[in-house]
């Protein structure tokens, strides 16, 4: 059959509220034109994030009932540890309450002022945690990954030449570790090939620099490798994941993505000293190392979820939904990043809204239009999230102005996607009627979550 179906049926539903356009205009105004400040109930289709928003399976709910809530050494911890060891073969496993807690404790335990951390592209919380420790987060993404109009199979790859010269310029002694984000969320959810991971590892090994994976979407990355990288067609997603982790010295992960859970994270590493330092901070901040800020029932749901994320039928369906939306929008001439990423469709807002300059935030203009027209909530990955202020205090735009429609896992069905397509098309037809925005209030860090806008 040509039609790829959802490999599940629905046992429990959650109502969606559909409010009028006039009501949405009012709600957005009250939220200071920042969709993060809306009530979720006022969003018809919530594509703000794929993080913690997935639907759990019957097997996960069943596992929750056997959660062992013992403070130390629970059965649920044993299962969690065994599952992650099966996938990664990494020695020390630490649960955290979510990804950024793992990043924060890693940064706190390993970084000092003046250190430099390269990555293909840092996610915003990773960057913020590194910079909070006084270090500098640097993106060394390959050229094709930086151009939304280029089609290439592994646009998340690290630029190996840049990595080598980066190490030579800054000195290995100032680079306590390097990172690779799989898939590269902020660059369009694009995958990293195993060849690239191996090449990064080879360069780093020459300088004794450990490789830390940001593994939030490792199973989606494994799927891309199985489809696009020569030599991996006959391997299971688990085998590919095992090969990926065999090249890593450590990893952080938000289990709210490919853990198919609503909460959770981990830090894992092979180095005993790293583990000891991390463990001490974990106890101080998150909890005893066998629960790390999670309930036993969360550990159970995650253990099941991680293996479900490596199921080929599930990944085939998931990628088909992202592809479907990308292709339909592309056919209308709407500028989307191609090929489609693993967890989201990314619209190039710079091209979509060419009349709005970067410092008037074309991404936010597009996001607000999608909300007003159809109650769709999306997120900007552009100047509001990644812009910075130079030495003279002048705001500098981000390289890319992307709008991300992120897909919660196993939540929306075909008609929801058809509705999304209709809404995006309507905004596209009327794009010239939208104007840019000013920021009227902003915090010092991670401003996108809470800043206020006004239309200009
Ligand atoms: N790294 C990447 C690549 C991420 O995408 C995220 C979260 C994190 C780290 C942090 O994990 O949220 O569990 O603390 N991304 C979400 C998103 C929030 O919408 O892309 P967390």
UniProtKB/TrEMBL annotation:
User: Which InterPro entries does UniProt cross-reference here?
Assistant: ArAA_b-elim_lyase/Thr_aldolase, Beta-eliminating_lyase, PyrdxlP-dep_Trfase, PyrdxlP-dep_Trfase_major, PyrdxlP-dep_Trfase_small
Task: Name all Aromatic amino acid beta-eliminating lyase/threonine aldolase domain ranges.
Answer: 46-420
Q: Which SUPFAM superfamilies match?
A: PLP-dependent transferases (SSF53383)
- Record keywords: Lyase, Pyridoxal phosphate
* Keyword Acyltransferase included in the entry's annotation: no
Cofactor dependence: pyridoxal 5'-phosphate
Provide the family line.
Belongs to the beta-eliminating lyase family.
Q: How does it assemble?
A: Homotetramer.
Q: What is this protein called?
A: Tryptophanase
The taxonomic lineage of its organism, from the top, reads: Bacteria, Pseudomonadati, Pseudomonadota, Gammaproteobacteria, Alteromonadales
